Each structure stands twice: as C-alpha cells, then as structure tokens.
Amino acid sequence: MVSFHADVAPIFAMHCNGCHGEAGKLSLRSHSDALRGGNLGKVIIADDAERSLLIHFVDGRRGEAHRMPIGGRPLSARQIETLRRWIDEGAKADAPAAKQILRRTDVRLPTRITCRIPVSAYLTIEILHPATGAVLWSETASLKSPPEQNDAGPPGQPLHWDLRQAPGWPATVIVQLTIEHAASLPVNAEFLIAPMPR
User: Fold this and answer.
1) What is the dihedral of CA 144, 147, 152, 153, to 10 degrees?
2) For residue 145, which of 60, 108, 116, 118 sits 20 to 30 Å off, Cα-Cα?
3) C-alpha to C-alpha distance for 157 and 121, rounded to whole angstroms
C-alpha cells in the first residue's frame, strides 16, 4: 500500500510545491488541498489514475510543453508509478511522517535567519506571534542536488532570510524552521539568528 505521507508527499514537496502552492490555484501542500483540485477542477480521481489529470501532466500525455514539473526534470518512471498506485488504491491519507522542528524564541526584529541543511529536504520557515502562536509570515524551500528551477539550492548551501518588523507585528517573535522529507531525521542542521547586516 502506498503511503501519502511517506511516499507521495515527498514527491509533491521536492518536485511540485515550488509552483503548486499557487499556480493554477492548485496546491499540493496537503492531502486535502491535492484532492480539492484547482482551475481545471479535480486533478485526482480516487481509484482511477488513468482519468486523473495529475497523471496526465506528469507522464507527458498532455504534451511536452505541459509536462510537470515545468522547468524541471521530469519525474522518474518510479515516481509516476508511485503516484499512479496511490491514486488507484484510493488516494487515501495516512499518519503524518516524522519532521524536525527547530525553534528560537524572543527573536528581536530586524534579524537575519541563516540555515544550512546538509541533506535533501523540504523546509518551512515561519515567524510566529509569541503570545498567540499565529503565523505572521512563512516561506517554503526545497533543497536537492542538482537543484532545479524552483529549488532554493543544493544541500549544504547556506540559506538566508532578512526579516524586518511588519505593521502589527510585535518587536520580538518566534522563528520556527520545520524540516521534512529528509532521508533520515534528525538532521544535523545549522540554524542561526543574528542581527541583520547593515
């Protein structure tokens, strides 16, 4: 049985989410988002991979100009078969996979966030309100080698975010980095917070 969180979500995260958070109003960032579909309607028809537009776009039958991921390497035959089997098995959700969360509290803005992740992984960086835990800002990034068009870069390359206080934000915030879909967890990650360079 193909697992959504262990088998399918890593394909979406590392090859699709750079665009499909937003493109075509289709998000593949969660199971419920993927089943909801986008501008073309439902792209996943549970129990019927052959009628599912997701498969049509990744296997190239819509033509090379429309093969997903656009601007990246085509998915491997094995990855496409994983998606096909998951859909044919009912496109079900299952228990979430393990993730690693690194958190820094009492971070004064403006600040520079730097991280270095030595393995391929999918990252979510968030700024949280210290009193309510509400997400004030977030960004995602995928790291793989060799990097593709929508990737942040290869594993081991330092990533930086310079953040200033936005209207309505408190002066100090929580910074949270979530690492998912790495080959093994925990990852020996660098996660540094420092004053923004002048």
Assistant:
1) 80
2) 60
3) 12
Using CA atoms, how far apart are residues 181 and 185, in angstroms rounded to an integer? 9
> Cα 153 to the chain's mean position, in Å?
14
In a 10 Å sphere around its CB, with 0-12 CB exposed, 13-18 middle and 19+ buried, how is residue 79 labelled?
A: middle
pLDDT tens digits, one per residue of 116-175: 999 999 999 999 999 999 999 999 999 999 998 889 999 999 999 999 999 999 999 999
Q: Which two tokens stand for residue 93?
A: 């959700």
**Residue listed under structure tokens 């593709």:** 148
Statement: the pTM of the whole predicted model exceeds 0.85: yes
Please, what is the Cα angle at 147 between 62 and 75, to 5 degrees?
Answer: 30
CATH architecture for residues 4-88: Orthogonal Bundle (1.10)
